[in-house]
Target: SDR family oxidoreductase
Amino acid sequence: MSDDRDQYTFDDPRTRFPDISPEVQQQPEPGLQSEMTPVPDLGESTYRGTDRLRGRKALITGADSGIGAAVAIAYAREGADIALSYLPEEQKDAQHVIDEIEKAGRVAIALPGDITDPAHCRALVAAAVDGLGGLDAVVNVAGKQVWKEKIEEIDDEQFELTFKTNVFAPFWIIKAALPHLGPGSTIINTASLEAYKPAPDRLDYATTKGAINNFSKGLAQQLVGRGIRVNVVAPGPTWSVLQVTGGVNPESLPEFGSSESPMGRAAQPAELAPAYVFLASAESSFVVGDTLNVNGGMVTP
Ligand code: NAD
Ligand code: MG
Model:
């Protein structure tokens, strides 16, 4: 979208963002989105805040790039201060997001480190609470996705690291955060269409996404009694660096999203951010244990 438009501009969703056909490209994990062609759209020139998260304090994982970065920019423009979790190798992408947060007049606390380490997850929460002066939103967006055609090709290390990143880390982070979360606080986890429609070449990843959905719905029932709401966002095909770091078959990149989604194109990370804003904001006060599917029209249970 161009500079004179924002997320409220009334138009045709099919053509709102370009129908991209990315060239075959590959980077080692976790990759830098700034080196992708095209660079994913985080809503830098379009997201307009309207005070929906004024004064909130959010910890966002995977906040350097893709969906987590779009969420961080949107939250800052809605008035929240942000603690950003990402890997040290991603500093360049993270700096771009930190710059956007600071341009919005909000605080950005940079917390690089590996969330597959439980000690880091606990230190991450402590540093976020310290840097933000409290915490009232935990947004787990970080994820690992490695494409393998056959189960025999998934080694034990990949299987374990995918689970540690996608399932264990949110568990460790949420547990560490809970003592700091008062009534009104919100937790948002990130599943995927893969939770219900597992691609055969992403077995381990799809299984973690089913687990995240299930974990979140159980936890939501537990925590609503403390005034804390847990919900999930389940994205469909979204153009991000996850896809070009072994996330999907590289040969499939030119068709990424266009054949899979009835919308006929992939999403840009900017299109996911509003779902996370809604679920963090008090405006969704009666929405608990739900999964908001943002997938361009694919049928979900
Ligand atoms: P992305 O690569 O831009 O974001 C993933 C982030 O996870 C990385 O930036 C990294 O900071 C973080 N991460 C990974 N391993 C980590 C580790 N060990 N320690 C700390 N941080 C780590 O890609 P994205 O597509 O924006 O992914 C965000 C989330 O959206 C993921 O949970 C992904 O599964 C989910 N999702 C993406 C799509 C899609 O099509 N892109 C579809 C459905 C769900
Ligand atoms: Mg990244």
